[in-house]
Amino acid sequence: MSWLVLLNVLEWFIRIAMVLVILQRRLPPATSLAWLSIVFFQPELGILTYWLVGENRLAQKRVEQHRQMLAAMRSGAGSNGSPTSTAAPSAEDPRPIPVSRQAERLTGLPIIGGNDVRLIDDTDEMIRRLIDDIDAARHHVHLLYYIYVPDETGRRVADALLRAAKRGVTCRLLADAVGSRRLFNRKGLSHRLNAAGVRTVAALPAAPLRRRLARVDLRNHRKLAVIDGAVAYSGSQNIVNADYGHRRAGSWIDMSGRFTGPVVAQLQSVFLEDWAFETDEELRDQDVFPALTATGTMPAQAVPTGPSQVSVALPRIILAALNAAQQRIIITSPYLVPDQSTMLALMMAADRGVQVDLVIPFLSDHPVVSAAGRAYFDQLLDSGVNIYMHSPGMLHAKTMTVDDSVTLLGSSNLDIRSFYLNFELNVLMYGPQITELMRQAQVKYIHEARPIRPHLWRQRPKIHRLAESAAMLLSPLL
């Protein structure tokens, strides 16, 4: 028997085996068809790709440990001296109620009042304020970032951590092993930080064997800083220069919030969960959760999501918000690769007369993802959704406002990866004041953007449409 015959037999064995594997998972039909197309077209490449990135899983033992830890820690979120009273949205405006209940049901974290936030859309200001708070820290500094680059910005933050450690402040830095790989180079900044007493840990190491053959592209995409358990930063800003090292898209435009009040305890619990997940070290002392008093009147709710939890938590929460809209929805996202239910919710909102505005960057650092997103434009435009292409830099702010009642700010993109794969962190904020503040920033982005005119969009070159359609076929896998 020749080697060609053996190869053909092997390839058909792979195809049949993968059909059984994929059908057993009961994936969405589009995702199943995408995987089967790859496997049937190129079996060897298909099975290798599926082994690396095909299953939404971590090592099973770690998943179970993480779930038990989440249940224990989140049942006490807001305890240890911090306020435990919740603040439901006003009964006069019932629209936020399904959103807050959906989020609490899926994450275990309730809506809580008495908070204040300062929105920051400038990288230099964000880093400056973070360094000032680190310099004022007395007990601890906790940083959790997807990207921490040892560039000028990274070194400035590292110097602040070193100063804090020198005066006796406990400093912990958790950074994604892939997004922050330069931080963990053999001679990288992490070694200097660890040597000076700043505990620096890589989240989700990418080596498959080290992670017990778990999926290697599940990333910790969160951005979070907590200082003394009293001040927290969360949003889209990473620890990196404003250009992110990319010249093509220009300076990146981020949006973060500086939070004070009881919601900081929830954000602190997210860091502690991830820290324990990577180090097996649980921190529950009183200084980590100090007594927190009201600093404002804003109800808020942390929304951490990830593959070790309910895998559809984030899209459910977003759907609850979209379906409650009556007047206007504005979403800004650097990447637009929605799943079918989110697409349907956006189009249904436009059908019932809601003004739906999507703002995405004109230039992207991921051309394939950008092309896949453009393939959805026709359906959205036909339904009356407004799409704006923002060109002054790379719009990286991940925000959503619904009517004058709900605001979402965080690390999640409007794409399948954020919905189902990555560890993400968002904050839901309720009420007309914060929604108006966020909407002012969003409207500014719209004024800086170019609207997509449906009749002109349909006249784009055929080669572009073909490329977008081809990229769209990969959207279930992106």
- Total helical segments: 17
Helix percent reads 40-55%
Question: Which outline best applies?
Answer: globular
CATH topology of the largest domain: Endonuclease, Chain A
**Mean pLDDT score:** 85
Strand line-up across the major sheet: 4-3-2-5-6-8-1-9-18-16-15-10-12-13-19
> How many domains make up the coordinates?
3
Instruction: Give a short account of the largest sheet.
Output: 15 strands, mixed
Low-confidence stretches are: 78-85, 208-214
Written overview of the protein:
The protein has 478 residues and is of the alpha/beta class. It has 3 domains: 3-53; 60-91 and 113-298, Endonuclease, Chain A (2-Layer Sandwich); 313-477, Endonuclease Chain A (Endonuclease, Chain A). It is built from 17 helices and 19 strands. The strands form 3 sheets. A 15-stranded mixed beta sheet has the order 4-3-2-5-6-8-1-9-18-16-15-10-12-13-19, sandwiched between helices. The longest helix has 23 residues, at 3-25. It is globular, with a radius of gyration of 23 Å. Mean pLDDT is 85; it is low at 78-85 and 208-214.
